[in-house]
Each structure stands twice: as C-alpha cells, then as structure tokens.
C-alpha cells in the first residue's frame, strides 16, 4: 500500500508540475495575474506530493519492504538503520527521486524568498523550474520507478554495496544534488530574464545569493566525495579524474565563473550576455553529468544503471532543455547591451581573464572526459585519458588564477592604478617567496623549484587577501563594520591558497610503501616508524574482518595507533579494505591491509602524507566564504526600502540641483 | 546494477583463491619503489577498468604488477615497460593518451584555447563602450544611497 | 556579429550527435568495455608450454602454423566459460576446425575434472599456469577466443563467451575465408 501511495503521489506531482510549467508562462505572456499566481501554488503542491513519495520510499527501506524491487536490490535486514535510509539514494531510481525532491524544495524556497521579484519575472522562473520538474518526474515514472513491485517478493535484500555503507556516502550525494539542483534556479532566472527581455544589474543581484548557495553545496559535495574516496577506496588517492568526478567538477568551474561574472553585472552592468550564458552552462553541465553517469556511455566506478533506453530519454531531455535555452540565448542575447566602460587594466578585465581561464579549464576537462568516447565511437582507436593528461594540462591553467586572486580585489573598477598596486604588493610578493622556501624546508627539510613556486602562489593568495581585508577595514569609516560579503570573498580566496599549498606539499612529499609485513615487523618513513603488532579476526554487524594493529612512533614516542581492517560482508562477499588513518593538521599517517599471504603475514600499504588535510580545509574555507557572501545584508534588504531610499535620494539631488 | 557486477567480477577474481602458489615478485632495489608506484598508477587494470593496477584487487592487476617489478629488476626503462604493455593491450591500458593525429587536438587544445581566450578578452575590451553606457554605479550617488540605507537600518 | 552567439548551440549539438551515435552503437550490441586487440595482424606470440593432459609434453607456438585454428582461453573457475563450452564441443564434433585451448591460471586437477564433466573440444590443451603467456596474447578476462591463420598470424579476437550469433555471423565465415585463401579444404 505504502509504495502505491508513493507512486500515485509522483503521478500527481507530474500533473502539478505541468500546470506549474504552462500556466505561469502563459500568464506572463498575456499579463494575467491569476495564471501567474498559479506558479507559486503549484510549487507548494508539488513539494507536498514529491515529499510524500520520498517519505514513502524511505519508509519502505526502514521497514525492510522487500516486495519493492528497488529496496530488495539495495538493502538487507542486517543493514544498520542509517544505511537503510541512505540506501534510498544509493542507486539510480532513488537518487533520481532525491533529485526531484530537492528540486521541489528549491522551487518552493524561491516562492518564499521572492518578495522583491516582479510578478512576470517570478512567473517565468516558476515556469522554467516546472519544466525541469516535468522532465525528471517523467523520467522517473517512465523508465526508473523506485516503487516497482517484485513478484515474488525477495526473502531478503541484496544488500547495499559495502562501499556505500559509510557516513561519507550518506551526505555526499545530497550535498552534490543540492548544488546541481540549485543551479537550476540560476538557470531559471537567466531564462526568465531572456524571455522577458530585461537583463540588468537588478537581475544579477537577485541571482547572486541563489547561485552562491548552490555553489557552496556543490563545493562541499565535491570535497566530501574526495575525502570519502581517500579513506574508503583510494589507496591514498583523493582525485582520480574519473569521468563522473569530472562530471561534478565541470558545473563547479562554470558556477565559479558565474559567481564572478554576476559580480561584474551587478556592480557595473557589464558582461550580461556572458553571465546569462554561464548560468545556462552551469545547469546544463549538471544535466550533462546525469546523462554521463546514467546512460552507460562511460566506463566509471561511479556509473549507475547502464541502460541505453534511459540514456536516450535523458539525451532527448537534454536536447529540449539545453537546446531551447541556447537557442533562446542565440536569439535574444545579441540585443543585450550596455554596461559601464573600463580600461585595459581594471577589475573588469581581470575578472574577465579569471573567467576565461576557468572556461579554458572547463573545456579541457570536458575534452579529456569525452575524447575516449568520441574516438572510440568514430572508430579512431580506444585510448585512455587519465591523471597523466589532466595533471599536465590542468595545473598550468589554474596557477595564473591564483595570481589573479591576489591582484583582482585590489584593482579598482573601471580604471586600476597599476603602480600603486605594485607598491602595495611588492612586499607581499617577497614574503610569499620566502614562505615558499621556508614552509617546505621546515616541514620536510627539502624543496624543489616547482614546490617553492606553487607554495609561494598559495601563500601569495592568502597574504594578498589579508592585505586587502586590512585595507578595507582601515578605509571603512561607516558606522557598521565590513559587510559579510567582503569577509566571505576573503575567506574563500584564502581557502584557495590553502588548497594549493596542501596539494603541492602532499603530492610532492608523500611517501608510499607497498610491502609484506609479519607481526613484529617495522618500517620507517620520514622519521615515522610503523610497527605491525598483530592481525586478529573480528566480527561486525553484517561482516567479518581481519583487524591489524599498527603502532606508529616518532623519535621513539608513540604518536598513533592504527587499526586497518579487511572486511568480508555476509551478503555481498567481496573483500573490502578499511584503511586506518591518523590525521592531524600537518600530516596523515595511513595504513591499509592489502591481502593475506600464505607464507604468513600481510601485504600492506603504508603512507606518510604531509599537509593532506589542507586539501579539504581549502574547499571548506571556500564554502564558508561563499555562505558568508550569500547572507550579506544587501540581499536581505527589502525592495521596498531600496525603492524608498532611491526616491529620497532623487528628491535630495533635485533639491541640490535647484539650489545650484 | 552495473556497479555491482563490476565489483562482483573483481571480487570474484580476487577471492577466487588464486593466490595459491604464485609468489609475488619483490623489487630488488627499494629505491625503485617510486618508479614502481609511478608505473602502477599509470597502467589501467583491464579487468576493473576504472582502476589502475596500483589500486585494483584483481588477480590480473597483481600479475601486471609482478610483470612490472620483474622488468624493473631486469633493468628496463619506464618507456620499455610501458611499450611492452601497450603492444599487448593497446593504448587503452595507458592512462596517458598517445600523441598522434587523432589526439593532437586533445593535447594542443588547452594551449590553443588559452590563446583564443586572450584574443576574446582583447576583443571584448575593444568592443565595449560602443553600446549605450548604462553606468549603474555613479560612485558618489551609490555611496549616498548606501549611507542612507545603513542609517535606516540602524533605526529599524 | 550574430555568429558567435550560435557557437554554444552548435557545440552542444555536436556533442549530442556523438552521444546519440554511442547510444545507437550500444543498442546494436556494442560493449563499451570491449578493448580492441593490437595483436590483430601480428604474429602469434612465441611460447612453449606444457600440455594440460600430458604434462611431460610441450606445445609450441610454431605448431599453430599450417592450418587455421581457433585458440580459446578458458579456466575451470570461469563462470562465463560454461556458456560457450557446449558450443565448442559441438564445433569439435561437427566440423574439422582445429580448436586449441589455453587453460589459464588454473589448477591441473580442477581443469581436468572440468573437461571430463563438460566435454573436451580441444585438439590440444595448453597449460598456462602463471598466466604469463596469456599476457603476451593480451588476455584480460576469460573466456577469450582468437582465430589464427596458416602463417601463424592472429586475425580475430573475441572477448567473452562465443554466442551462436557471433559464431555464425563472424567466426565461421572468417575461418572459411582464411581456409579458402590458404588452399585448405
């Protein structure tokens, strides 16, 4: 009964979404307030019904209802409760339902936080979001119904893939999807603006908080995925340039460019058509990501169901949504003009350079991801494009960006003062280089040219941003302190510097040993001594394991006790490695059991990874910065007050003009 | 459930007990470990095709690793070892794409795009100012507006 | 002036065209995990390995010359091999095609038992215990089948179990063609 309710709720939601698509668009076109208002109503109703569906599926998992095929495929009665819940989004059908649910949530949020939006504009936004919902709900109902029954019912489920039985996997997909789905709002705003024919700085200001919050979620989602892969899968790796990882990274790159482009459009009214295109691109890349993951065209460890029929559906959906939005862009964008003028050396140009670099990075990742697909399809050979390619090509593009982080905020709009800038930054350059030498030398006792250059850049980003903050605080004569947006930007930019330092030091100085150890054996790395004490069998809730005990000492003092495990789950009997990590701010100590040897002992992997945590600390800071920027007071200033203030200013200016 | 099948195959192979009497090759010179790690990360496991032979649990990955270690011990260069694998399994086994007619765009592309990017920047800069100047930020007016809003905010 | 605004949609539909092509190919039965063999058109890798049934005797790659053969890589632990084995047995009974087996990374007793239970279609069974020879053949999963011509050149490779369709559509025609070219009956 419960699954049928869920199924029915989805069908209702689909019809409501259709109403939400058609009525407000027609209403905006014809100027009919009653139809336009239906958008908000439909959004609320849709949230209700999709929530019901999601709740029903969750209930089926909690109650171990193995008459539902999706539950039988992904759960098991021995599965701990938290994973029974996270299994809801553990596979294709359920993750789509999560997407639909989050979409209805974001749509509803737009209806709440939209007091300052004009009626026509909001109606069009609702229409676009409704259309996206229709696509997803139709996809679910036609090809990927999580509520399909299983006859005869299974006695017990096939269990959730052990790799997914992990806290990281509980929040990683929801965070990612919040980001992907959030970009649909920026997309809807862009399309609504193109449809209405009004694209101005005000539109940019409305879009910014929505875009920034989505970007924050996506940043957190990607960082979580990387961190999870590191301790769960990876033999010490945290980014593999796997096609599906790239599929999440591309929207992020577009989103970052979008945030910066929106800043220019809001402040100076410039780059409007760029901003619109970026908004379309960010969401399109999110959709493209879903296609790549679910259609079976790519080989990837993350890939969901490989069903060409589903692939065809998504491809058609992509064509309709992206095709029509790009067609609208080609038609309307040429008429979008305006914006303040600027000199060659100005913040506008620097932001433009920033965006160009981000776009080149995006194009590179796209090419590298699709190249094997294209060549294979055309019969031109089967190649692999992996880390050797991406690392070689991507890094040189990103490094100039780090330089720009330091310069950009300090350069004025319209016309920058190069010599004054040099005076300010001269010392920072010197200190950055000194730090670039000092940090690796102090941490590892050695350095190379590349390491010093990269660490200097990271230090440069942090120090120059700190200098910028200091300058702003000194100049701020108003009653209030600096706005949240300024702090947000600063923290985010510093996060980038932290990330660069972490990646550089970890990549350059990590030591990995792959060796055979028996109880009592030791190995030394960078001063740390790892001793295997013992390996004993243990039992878990739904697995049995061999657990090793490894003691780590530094200069004779014990610094860590590690317990790596090799688990065999009862249902899906493949062996799983649970690495044991001792993490601190400046280094990770990492041990994993590879396999048992008949001659006694175990093949093991032992790592020392300096500054590894900085790799995720950076994105965390970026996310925090983004959050601060999104809640900046000026976005919460009500439209009414702005209008009143403007009127007051106008009359003041008129008075001053009259007196003059 | 493709994910399941991939791991089932890899798991089956790993757990199938083929670790019986095949002894793993050891590197003769511990100093060769970085080279071994580098090579293992660059070669794809042909069974679990999403993993390198460094990461994969599959039996074939183990065989490949042993081959690599043997060849390192025999004094072969990285290029010779890579060529050995590519001759037998094709370009697909190497994570670094070859540079040939088909992949030229892939390797040169980013570089070309940067150049195109800078041309675009220059052209946008040149083009701007021809449209109506919608200067929405007269800084003095903006400052007064901001001050007014700040004041009002204090009172509210 | 308008042209540059059309660029995004043009690029997009170019991508869609490629995706559509790939989906079509998958629909036609293409397995994207299939890896084409670089050994096609090259000589069979040299080896000399013991036979499975008579361990004191060996089989050398030279013996593959002079006639067209189907070389089949299999193992008793390989589940998919069971699907194609009856086909091979039938082939060995109803045709005079030379089928050579390479037993891959298997324990001799297990392999012998398997052949006893399932039938032995092989003219000769080569025993590749450590799998080294198979690496020379570019083997990465069982079962795999190769067609070798009279000069000892590899002309075809199939990964996975042989289906009746594949047999009739590709394998038998190629073997017949090669035999005609080589003057075999």
Structure description:
The complex is a heterotrimer of chains A (660), B (156) and C (185). Chain A is built from 19 helices and ten strands. By secondary structure, chain A is α+β, with helices and mostly antiparallel strands. The longest helix of chain A has 32 residues. The radius of gyration of chain A is 27 Å and the shape is globular. Chain B folds into two domains: 97 residues, Helicase, Ruva Protein, domain 3; 54 residues, no CATH class. Helices cover 59% and strands 0% of the residues of chain B. Chain C is α/β, with parallel strands linked by helices. Chain C folds into two domains: 30 residues; 147 residues, Glutaredoxin (3-Layer(aba) Sandwich), CATH 3.40.30.10. In chain C, the strands form two sheets. Chain C has a five-stranded mixed beta sheet with strand order 5-4-3-6-7. Chain C has a two-stranded antiparallel ribbon with strand order 1-2. The termini of chain C are far apart. Chains in contact: A-B, A-C, B-C. Chains A and C meet through helix 10, helix 11 and helix 12 of A and helix 1 of C.
Q: Rg of chain B from C-alpha positions?
A: 29 Å
Runs of chain A with pLDDT <50, length 5+?
none
Helical coverage of chain A, percent range: 55-70%
Number of helices of chain A: 19
- State the low-pLDDT regions of chain B, or none: 1-20, 131-137, 152-156
Proportion of strand residues of chain A: 5-15%
The radius of gyration computed from the alpha-carbon positions of chain A, rounded to a whole number of angstroms, is 27 Å
What's the number of helices of chain B? Answer: 6
Mean pLDDT of chain B comes to 76
Q: In whole angstroms, how far apart are the ends of chain A?
A: 79 Å
Q: What is the CATH architecture term of the largest domain in chain B?
A: Orthogonal Bundle
Note the overall shape of chain B.
elongated
> Shape of chain A, please?
globular
CATH H level, superfamily name of the largest domain in chain B: Cytochrome C biogenesis protein
Would you report the number of β strands of chain B? Answer: 0
Order of helices and strands of chain A: HHHHHHHHHHHHHHHHEEEEEEEEEEHHH
Number of domains of chain B: 2
Question: Biggest β-sheet of chain A, characterized?
Answer: 6 strands, antiparallel
* Structural classification of chain B: mainly alpha
